[in-house]
Structure formats: structure tokens, C-alpha cells
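Input.
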Amino acid sequence: MARTVRAALVQAGIPDGDASRPIEDIKRDMIEKHEELLGQAAGQGAEIVCFQEIFYGPYFPADQDRKWYALTEHVPEGPTTQRFAGLAKELGVALVLPVYEEDKTGVYYNTAAVVDSDGSYLGKYRKHHIPHCAPGFWEKFFFKPGNLGYPVFETAAGRIGVYICYDRHFPEGARILGLNGAEIVFNPSATVAGLSEYLWKLEQPAHAVANGYFVGAINRVGHERPWDIGEFYGTSYFCDPRGQIVAEAPRDRDAVVVADLDLDMIEEVRQTWQFYRDRRPETYDELVEL
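Output.
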């Protein structure tokens, strides 16, 4: 019997594109919006859902203002993780929940909590690769690099891994996720049109092919004032282990994209392209020496 999982991605813009509103208002409105979109995904039969990078706020690393530290929460004890764990249980949907994590006072991570469909907390991934560049990507001001490795989580919907936004430019972690058993890798992101847009549908299908797994790539939408560092261009998508895009969201509006992922395809593809069999780790020392 085929092992097919119905998965969903949620992309959304902040209300009115206005990041100058009070932080607590933005967070409340985005949480309410994502509750509604999660309900839509569950209504379409989704078994696992992933939100965008730090889903309840704007892309605040567009400037370097300490006020955004107010968005941090502990994981899993924080109110957002707890609230959505309850919804996961109520709806019977596993969740990848990207939040701004406070580990201890002054130590913050770009994190995704993973919750199973019974509401149980399975663990978290912390973004490893932290950009700091102009214009508008001042992430080292806000995030410490991740320190939890590249875990794979056993959910009711399958074995899933998480890679966050800028991580996608680095193939090493994508390979480790595959070697650790990931069947679906989610990449919640906040990326704008311009320099890297052509990579959006190049790198992640390449990771899927190189590792023989499914990828779910999520991006927010719209312009965010007052910074307006560019258009967050949506086009969230799923691609299969052959690198083919199987479902895609529009560019310019809130959306839920749902796809049926045939996990049996992973074995079929890996038996055709024996990349894991033929890799030569004993020859790769220079990767960590250089």
C-alpha cells in the first residue's frame, strides 16, 4: 500500500504591510491569521503543516532595533508553542512552527518547534547559518547560530527535517538531514525579489535530487514598511525527490498550498540514483579543514 502524506505550506503577509504598528498587535493578528489558515489546511486533509520563518512577526532583521527582542519566547514553554500544540491536537495535524526563541536572557535563536498531531512536542531546530549583509539582512544582531545539529523528527506524517531560510544555500546540512533519515525537509523562509530569487527554484530542488527526499519551501508575501527591502514573493512550493515542483502557491497573496507526497518514491529514486551508496566521506576531510 502506497505511503502517501498530505502536507501543506502556509505563506502570509503582515496586516497592511505595516511593521510600524505595535509589536503586540502584529503578533496577535498574525497568530489569528495563521490559526485560520491552519484550519483551511486541516479542512483540506493536511496531515502536516509548516509556517513561514518567524511566522508571527515581520522580517524585523531589516533593521537593528532591540525592540524586536520582545517577540522572543521560550520553546516549548512559550505561549505560541503551547497554543499551537493545542490546535495540532484538536485538528490532528503535525506542525512545524518557526518562532523567535529565547534560550536565556540575551541569548536568542531563529527556531522551529516541531509538534506531532497528538499535540506532543517532539523537539526543535535552530537555524545554523546566520547572514549579516546589506541591504536589510542584519540577522547576527538578533540570532545566535544554532547548536542542536540537524535533527530528524518522527511524526505521524513521516520523518521530517527543518532547514531555515539562509541555511538552504549550504548543501552540507541538507545532506546530513538526508543521512539522518529525513523524508520531507521543510525550509521556512523570508526572502525578497532580486539577487537570490533565481536560486529559489534551483537550490532546493537540487537538494531534493542530491538526497532523494521531498522539500517544502515556504516564503512570506508582500512589502513590509517602513523598511521595504523588497517584495517577499511567496511562490511556496513542494518538490519531489526528482526535483519536480508538484504544487506551488501564488506570488502575491496569502495562501495554503497542499500536496500529496508519495513517500514510496524516495526508495524508488534512491535505488535509481545511488548517491548515498557511492559517496566517499573518507575523501572529504578538506570540507572541515579548509
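The two ends are 47 Å apart (CA to CA).
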